[in-house]
Structures are given as structure tokens and as C-alpha cells.
Amino acid sequence: MSQILVIGARGKTGRHVASGLVSRGASVKAASRNPEEVSGEYGVPTKFDWLDSSTWRSALAGIDAVYLVKPESEDVVEIVTEFLHAMEDADVRRLVLLSECATHTRSEEVTERRVELAVEATNLEWTILRPSWFMQDMIDEDFFGPMIRDGGVIVMTTGGSAIGWIDARDIAEVAVELLIGGGSIGQALDLTGPEALTLNELADRITAAAGTPVLGVEETVAEAESRMRRDGFDEDTIAYLTRIVESIIEGHTANVTGDVERITGHPPRHFDSFLVDHARDLRRTGELDADSTRPDAAADNEALFRRLVAAWASSDFDTLLDCFADDMVYTDMPFPDAPVLGKTAFKRHVTDYNALFARGQVDTELVTVVATDTHVVGELSCRARYVGPGAPEEGVPVHWYATLVDTIDDGKVVSEHVYFDPTAFDKAVQRVST
Q1: What is the DSSP string of 192-210?
Q2: Residue 271 has pLDDT above 70, yes or no
Q3: CA-to-CA distance for 350 and 357, rounded, in angstroms?
Q4: Alpha-carbon distance 64 to 154, whole Å?
Q5: Taking a C-beta distance cutoff of 8 angstroms, is the pair 35, 12 a contact?
Q6: Which residues contact 237 (CB under 8 A, 6 or more apart)?
Q7: Which pLDDT belongs to residue 293?
């Protein structure tokens, strides 16, 4: 049985890494400066202090692999380098380092890149994870949470570029697979969610989920630096944060990769799903007091609809089924005499349908969405590579429109009627055949 040291076992990713490893049968040392505050579900609470190297030896004893989240310290490069030597001395071979998006594009003189270079210089079997921005930052008290809830705004510096937001749980699942099964040794992996969103798109999604308006506010680099100085940030921190926003402006965060699905076997979680799950954490301060049960049923229904569409488009069937009532009725309106009854039958139906497309993926754009407290109507523009009957081996690109009419009761879709042209796929095959 592998024994794995998880540093930062109480952090955003570390706690999911630790619990994920435990659920897979691994023996875990859950490292923390305050081990008495670590729950047993994360493994064996283990004393570990980055600033006290005397705690490292016992933490590394008997360890096969390490999940490393670097410390917040002015001496981070020196501290991590010393710890890497301690790993080698303890004959620990496997390392998964949590780094950050676009680090490889920055100067080799900056701290975050120097940490990566220190790892690359070892004889360890290392993998570096470079995730995009965390979805959890939306509700974090130290990030966007207060400004969204208290001010109805989200302030960023993006230059109009997009960000491929990723759920911390997906990062953790990648780490778990690599720590247990190996693979990707000597590689740096760029981890993203399934889509990249501009600031305005992000604000629109949050508005739909929260049921209260949230405005995206674009700051220039100079404005952001001035604000940080007013807020008392030191110059090193300002320089670090400026490097991050410059990466966004240059488009480094807009690329969407398939590494999460390649390693875990499932698509990354969609932002709409995260927002729906945390809708209460996004609503304006005081809104819940006015009607703590359903502050805006129409907005809730629209958020549910967006979650449903995103889950279908990525073949995330567990999330998709969670949107429906157990006794749901689904009807493809070109075939009104063949409704699908119940979630079990619907899962078979939609699994077979998505198998008609390469990798089960469909790019969708919501052209129009209208929501009430009982219904949602949405028009979708859909693009995919059709690999079903009649298609050549490599598939054929196809574009079609679909209109969904959903009836919603108590937060679940009880019926869905889908209107589309079923001949779109035959026509696409005919075009490449002639």
C-alpha cells in the first residue's frame, strides 16, 4: 500500500487530494502546522511546518510520494529546494507539485518559475500541475466573495481575454491519479475547466446563478496596482499579482486543455454547475433575509437550465441526471410518439445520443434563454463532430439548432421537450460524400 504525504491537507486542493487518496485505499499523512485541527477523513494528522525543518524528517518517514503546495514565504525557493533535498535523502521518489497557470511563460528570475526549476533539477519522478484560476475563488472571503455579495461587482484586469476556470476538485482528482498510478513523469500539465470565459461572460453567469445583478468591472494594470498600494500590499506581492494579470491579458489563461479528462477519465466540472451549487454564497448580503427560501425562482430555474445544458454538452451524465425529477418525461419532438420516461431510461437515451459525437462532446451556445418561475425555454446553437451512422471514420462537422422547453417543479426538471431538425446529420454526411 502506498503511503503519501499531502502538504496543505486543509487547503483548497489538499483536502480533496487527501480525502480522495483515502477513498482509494492509500495510506495518507495529512500534513499541517496544526495537526490537531485535521479531521481523520483526510488521513493521519501529521505535524509539518515549512518554517521548522525538524518536522520534515518524521513527516517523510516511510513516504512513497508527496503532494506539495509551496509555502507563502519570502524564502519560498530556498525552503522548497531544501525540502526537495530532504525528500531525496529520505528516498522518496514521487512528487506532484501544485504550481500555477502560465508559469513557464515568465522570467526564470521570478519566484514561481524558480520553484519549478528547482523541482526540474532534481532526480525525483516529478509532475508539475499548472491549473487555471479556481472556481472556488468566486466565494472565497479572501478573493471575490465579498465584492460579489456586498457590492454586486467582480473587479478584474483581463484586457478582454478569457480564463478557463477550474474546480479545485478536478485539480485534486488529477493529483490523486498521478500519486497513485504514476504517469506524466517529467511533465508540466496545464489544467483547465471545459470553457474559457471573459469577464462579462463570467458576470452574466454569476448573475444567473445568484438571481441578483453582478457587474464585471475591468481595471487597467495601473489602476489595479494603485488600488493594491492603497490597500497596503507590499511591492513584491503587487509585482506577483501583476505578473498574473499580464498572463491573462496576453491570452495565456484562455486556452482550454483536455488533461483533466485524459487523466481522470471524465470531463472537468462546468462553471455553471459550481455556481448553481453555491448560489446562496453568491447572493447579495441581505437578499436571503427577504425570502430565505426562494429569492428568485426564475433565476434559479435559468441557472438549473444552464447547468443542464453544460452537463449534456460534456457528457457529464451524473450532473445531468441530478437536474431531473425521478419521474421525468423527455420528448424529442420530431418523434412525439416515443417519450422517454424516468431517469434510468433517459440515461440510456442520452448516452446513446452523445455517442454519436466525437468524444461525446458538443460545443453549445445559448442563443436565447427565457425563464419563469415554472418554465425555461432556451435556443441552442450546437456544433460537434458527428461519428454516427453513415459518417466517415474521422467524423464530419455538423451544426444544428435545438429549442428546449423545460417544466420545472421544486428545483427539478419534470418534463423536457426538444425541437430540432433530425436530418441535420444526414445532410452533413451527404455534403462530404458529394
Answers
A1: --S--B-HHHHHHHHHHHH
A2: yes
A3: 12
A4: 42
A5: no
A6: 228
A7: 43
List of domains in the chain: 3-249 (3.40.50.720), 302-433 (3.10.450.50)
pLDDT given for residue 286 in this prediction:
59
Whole-prediction pTM: 0.70
Task: Inform me whether the pLDDT recorded for 429 exceeds 60.
Answer: yes
Q: What is the pLDDT of residue 212?
A: 82
> String of b and e for 59-94 (b: at least 16 CB within 10 Å)?
bbeebbbbbbbbeeeeebbebbbebbeebeebebbb
Radius of gyration of the chain (CA): 24
Residue where the block lists cell 485539480: 171
Please name the residue that has the C-alpha cell 474559457.
196
**Confidence at 291, pLDDT banded by 50, 70, 90:** very low
Question: Is the pLDDT assigned to residue 13 strictly greater than 90?
Answer: yes
Q: How far apart are CA 76 and CA 230, in angstroms?
A: 26
The amino acid that residue 130 corresponds to is R
- Helix/strand/coil percentages in the chain, nearest 5: 40, 25, 35
